[in-house]
Amino acid sequence: MSAATLLHVEDLVLHYRTRQGTVRAVDGVSFDVRRGEALVVLGESGCGKSSLAKALMRLLPRNVARTGGRVRLGDLDATALSDERFRREVQWTRLALVMQASMNALNPVVRVGEQVAEPLRVQRRWSRRRALARAAEVFELVGVATDFLARYPFELSGGMRQRAVLAMALVAEPELVILDEPTSALDVLTQASIMNALKRIKRELGTSFILITHDVATSSELADRVALMYAGQLVEVADAGRFFAAPAHPYSQMLMASVPRLHQRARPEAIPGQPPSLFEPPAGCRYAERCPYRFARCAEHPPAFALGERHRARCWLHADDGEAGGAP
Amino acid sequence: MSPSAVPRPDDAQAPLIAASDLHTWFELRQWGFLRLGAVRAVDGVDFTLAHGEAVAFVGESGCGKSSLARTLLGLHRPTRGEVRFAGRSLGELKGRALKAYRAEVGYVQQDPYGALPPFLDVRRLLAEPLIVHGVRDRAERERRIRAALEEVRLSPAEEYLGKFPHMLSGGQQQRVVIARALILAPRLVIADEPVSMLDASVRVEILELLRHIQCERGLTLAFITHDLSTVRHYAERIFVMYAGRVVESAPVDDLLDHPQHPYTQALLAAIADPDAANATRLREVPAGEPPSLLHPPAACRFHPRCPHFMAGVCDRHDPPDFEPRRRHRSACWLHR
Ligand SMILES: Nc1ncnc2c1ncn2[C@@H]1O[C@H](COP(=O)(O)OP(=O)(O)OP(=O)(O)O)[C@@H](O)[C@H]1O
Ligand SMILES: Nc1ncnc2c1ncn2[C@@H]1O[C@H](COP(=O)(O)OP(=O)(O)OP(=O)(O)O)[C@@H](O)[C@H]1O
Ligand code: SF4
Ligand SMILES: [Mg+2]
Ligand SMILES: [Mg+2]
Fold first, then answer.
1. Comparing C-alpha atoms, which of B300, B327, B310 is closest to residue B245?
2. Residue A201: which CATH number?
3. Is position A133 within any domain?
4. Which of the ends of chain A has fewer CB neighbours closer than 10 A, N or C?
5. pTM assigned to the model
6. Which backbone phi and psi does A56 adopt, to 5 degrees?
7. Is A127 domain-assigned?
């Protein structure tokens, strides 16, 4: 693990128990994030992105069938911490999460300023005044006028509410912020302006981000690195430049070809077929059914082959140029 | 299929549907009687769509796209102005004529998940419009249902007929919604955000399908979206809406390559194509948020956010439609 590594995740697992069987939502995910770096987690709906975020934050529902894997944050072995210590020492203060659709989950009867200040009052036991003053600073950072502190959520537009939940995640100055679809419900201009705020925060405060989204174009607004998820696993992890221009995994290539582009005339191409069920994912490559390059070997489960420095792809086509099980 | 659905060379440019000075306002009341004012959802819209043309209406959330669609469908009565379909004013249609109009216009409503009642299987979902419009013969209905499923590429049809919506993926559900909109062989299809709830890879598939059917059948297609990046290949003309009005309209390539209205320019500048370099530069975004339609800004609706705002002009007089380029209209005083 390099000194610059902030978060190191190895073989993370989160399975749910349901009446229909076990859902293997996160099924052996490994990656790392360096200090000041933004990792984008891309993937189709239902592939396990939000589950990955919840597993990292230990915000687990009751019907967990299995969890596993190792998570290190800086030099802290988070896996070894009890839930109690994790909540006190890591959650929200070192590692924060903006949950999917959380802008609609603000408490309707509490002024947004109080809600943003709350983590400081509860976890750091700051006075109300001090916490509110800090909340005002963070509001400015995310682009909300400070007189909005005194407003109730229903008095704010969707874009402003989204900025408020972002402020809530940033208020305790965490080292790493996980953003789960932070702009998907918003308009183009609001989206662009929130992405601008995130870029500024990243540059000025050196905060690290994991940005979860299914929107490839928006993801490129923040990404230093990209991890593409498919059916509970990462199929490729690469530098953004590499991923957007010349990805290695067939699914990555087909995903990039399916993205409609505003300024280019190339016609987007759909990916035929559907992702497999997470109840009983195929024993071989999970993408095989949709893959035009499929060959005999694909009936076996491919490991993640290391293709270069910090570049991995889970595909048998790279068995010769890569080295199985290489470090991310 | 009605014979008029096949485009004939002589009516290729003949108007199928036209809106003139169209206004749809919603009265807002408190406790049922206290008038708070009117939400000006559609506020002076003019356009003409030709037979067999595919157009896109693009704009941000709340700018009035769905209200416009519902007014064209005859679901809202215009506050002012009129809609003419094949030469007749919608306002004159009553009873059977109105019912016949509803069969001529297919509607793919926003929110595919709410569009399909969960307790009907695919066969019943598709039979319903046929029954409502008097197709009594069961065998004839079955034939048309199967043909509709094949047309949206849910084939073999048998596999889908008995399925309920929850057994279908989002993309398959949307195909059923499209099949339902097409089953009465309409001449016009209005598709309100047909793909915004779907994954990127599925989006393209559905848009291709719609465009393909539109060309095959010679339909007029009005497709509503908030996502400019998806329009290039699926429409011939674009209408950009802002705060209840059409601010710019042009053939698709001309609009995307030479946007004229400051709002369209801002929209286009805000949209990224995937590129790692995006992460290293800030985007130019006009300040502020879309205005309230209850109290819209005076004159040009975009003036409070516009980088080219000219005091005394833009906030005093409504900009008319100028034609700064051929077939390219823009409602902005800069073209004066
Ligand atoms: N608490 C739960 N119990 C059972 N299954 C669950 C639970 N939460 C999620 N799932 C299932 O796990 C899979 C992954 O869900 P998850 O929400 O992580 O996907 P996602 O990639 O975030 O999707 P989206 O893009 O739609 O938000 C899905 O099949 C989902 O139905
Ligand atoms: N039946 C109604 N009664 C009162 N107000 C309405 C009604 N329908 C729509 N509105 C209002 O009219 C405005 C335009 O709404 P509309 O749904 O047409 O916008 P839209 O462009 O389709 O937005 P979106 O992209 O979110 O679907 C909004 O302010 C909305 O709240
Ligand atoms: S009319 Fe004036 S305010 Fe409106 S878009 Fe044109 S320059 Fe801007
Ligand atoms: Mg999710
Ligand atoms: Mg709408």
1. B300
2. 3.40.50.300
3. no
4. N
5. 0.90
6. -65, -40
7. no
Considering only the beta carbons, identify the residue of B169, B204, B275 that sits closest to A244. Answer: B275
Q: Which two tokens stand for residue B252?
A: 């698709």
**Sheet-wide strand order for B34-50:** B34-50, B15-30, B80-85, B88-89
Biggest CA–CA distance in chain A, Å, is 66
Q: Which ligand is nearest to the CA of A52?
A: 1
The owner of tokens 């037979």 is: B51
Interface contact flag, A187 B279, Cβ < 8 Å: no
**ipTM over 0.95 threshold:** no
Sheet harboring A305-308: ordered strands across? Answer: A95-98, A176-180, A208-213, A38-42, A225-230, A233-239, A311-313, A305-308, A323-324
pLDDT tens digits, chain B, 336 residues: what are they? 344 444 444 444 679 999 999 999 998 887 777 778 899 999 999 999 999 999 999 999 889 999 999 999 999 999 999 999 999 999 999 888 988 999 999 999 887 567 788 899 999 999 999 999 999 999 999 999 999 999 998 988 998 999 998 888 888 888 999 999 999 999 999 999 888 878 777 888 889 999 999 999 999 999 999 889 889 999 999 999 999 999 999 999 999 999 999 999 999 999 989 999 999 999 999 988 889 899 999 999 999 999 999 999 999 999 999 999 999 999 999 999
A100 in contact with ligand 1, CB cutoff 6 A: yes
Min Cα–Cα distance to chain A from B199, Å: 6
Domain region containing A288: 5-94+174-325
Question: Is A131 a domain residue?
Answer: no
Cα angle A239, A242, A247 (rounded to 5 degrees) comes to: 115
Atom 25 of ligand 2: nearest residue by CA position: B61
Domain total in chain A: 1
How many Cβ atoms are within 10 Å of A21's Cβ, its own excluded? 14
Instruction: Say if A189 falls within a structural domain.
Output: yes
